[in-house]
């Protein structure tokens, strides 16, 4: 990817006049909205599209309640390479946005750019997958690492009646949230003595690579019982790989997915059940929290009211949690698929 072209394109995303680019963050002219950038791990991912939808809903709710007029800038790289997220951050700094909320592809590589943004007066927070603490003010986790890990392992045990070989198909090897969830799963394995974790592989949150990795797992472990995919991209790719290999009903896929994307696999029986938190709520909370930070309120050790979602508490390190994931199966997948 040509970085010069990427930077030029991202600078144009906000549709900003040349004069407004000269304003420092926080120095809004009359009628100028609060500009909150939501940065995805990669574009074209249904999870982050739903986050964007929630962010727009929060912006509308805040304005209708007499609060700030908010412009949500939804952006991200076309792949999950950390250097491309850095380019996105640098472009947003050049736009002088008021806040950046990012789901990090690498917790450490993004820190210098995020620190530079904060030095320019931009409020930086992370959601879904955190930047290291020194690179952000707050981090909103989808769920606690333990909740996510427990959910995935329990789902795997249910899929194979508590006995069999399981493999994990994750996103990137540097993904903060994925690695924490995998660590929680490994720590919880003694609770499921019949499960044998044979390997962890990475599909880089790309459908084609995740499909290839899942196919390779099926070939390497012919007696594999379950593929755990704690990624909305990987779970659908793994389900397709199992179906294409003619192993539906023999190998099950579970993990974290979107109802709208997993409905077909659930109906076929490739996925018995899976879990997810509502990404629309995540986006809603992100914009509410970022708007509070721009107003000079909130921070580590505080509780921030996220509109209709209520208060979210952040600890002294700036970590907060949205809530436990919800499990979906054939009994409720059709209704959930209409929502997200």
From TrEMBL:
<dbReference type="InterPro" id="IPR025997">
    <property type="entry name" value="SBP_2_dom"/>
</dbReference>
<dbReference type="GO" id="GO:0030246">
    <property type="term" value="F:carbohydrate binding"/>
</dbReference>
<protein>
    <submittedName>
        <fullName>Rhamnose ABC transporter substrate-binding protein</fullName>
    </submittedName>
</protein>
<dbReference type="GO" id="GO:0030288">
    <property type="term" value="C:outer membrane-bounded periplasmic space"/>
</dbReference>
<dbReference type="GO" id="GO:0015762">
    <property type="term" value="P:rhamnose transmembrane transport"/>
</dbReference>
<dbReference type="Pfam" id="PF13407">
    <property type="entry name" value="Peripla_BP_4"/>
</dbReference>
<dbReference type="InterPro" id="IPR028082">
    <property type="entry name" value="Peripla_BP_I"/>
</dbReference>
<feature type="domain" description="Periplasmic binding protein">
    <location>
        <begin position="36"/>
        <end position="297"/>
    </location>
</feature>
<dbReference type="InterPro" id="IPR050555">
    <property type="entry name" value="Bact_Solute-Bind_Prot2"/>
</dbReference>
<comment type="similarity">
    <text>Belongs to the bacterial solute-binding protein 2 family.</text>
</comment>
<dbReference type="InterPro" id="IPR013459">
    <property type="entry name" value="RhaS"/>
</dbReference>
């Amino acid at each position: 990817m040509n970085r010069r072209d990427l930077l030029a394109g991202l600078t144009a995303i906000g549709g900003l006049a040349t004069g407004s680019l000269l304003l420092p963050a926080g120095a809004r002219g009359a009628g100028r909205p609060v500009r909150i950038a939501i940065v995805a791990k990669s574009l074209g991912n249904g999870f982050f599209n739903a986050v964007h939808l929630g962010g727009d809903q929060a912006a509308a709710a805040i304005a209708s309640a007499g609060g700030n007029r908010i412009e949500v800038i939804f952006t991200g790289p076309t792949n999950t390479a950390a250097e491309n997220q850095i380019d996105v951050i640098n472009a947003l700094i050049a736009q002088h946005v008021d806040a950046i909320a990012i789901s990090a592809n690498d917790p450490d590589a993004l820190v210098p750019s995020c620190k530079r943004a904060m030095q320019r007066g931009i409020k930086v927070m992370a959601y879904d997958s955190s930047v290291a603490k020194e690179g952000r003010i707050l981090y909103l986790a989808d769920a606690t690492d333990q909740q996510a890990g427990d959910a995935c392992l329990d789902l795997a045990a249910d899929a194979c009646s508590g006995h069999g070989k399981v493999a994990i198909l994750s996103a990137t090897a540097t993904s903060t949230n994925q690695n924490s969830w995998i660590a929680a799963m490994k720590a919880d394995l003694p609770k499921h003595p019949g499960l044998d974790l044979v390997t962890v592989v990475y599909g880089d949150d790309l459908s084609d690579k995740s499909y290839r990795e899942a196919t390779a797992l099926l070939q390497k472990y012919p007696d594999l019982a379950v593929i755990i995919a704690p990624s909305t991209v990987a779970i659908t790719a793994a389900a397709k790989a199992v179906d294409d290999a003619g192993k539906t009903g023999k190998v099950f896929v579970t993990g974290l997915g979107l109802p709208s994307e997993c409905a077909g696999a659930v109906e076929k029986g490739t996925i018995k059940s899976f879990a997810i938190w509502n990404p629309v709520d995540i986006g809603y909370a992100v914009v509410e929290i970022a708007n509070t930070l721009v107003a000079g309120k909130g921070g580590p050790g505080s509780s921030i009211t996220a509109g209709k979602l209520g208060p979210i508490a952040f600890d002294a390190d700036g970590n907060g949690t949205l809530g436990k994931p919800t499990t979906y199966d054939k009994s409720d997948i059709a209704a959930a698929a209409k929502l997200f």
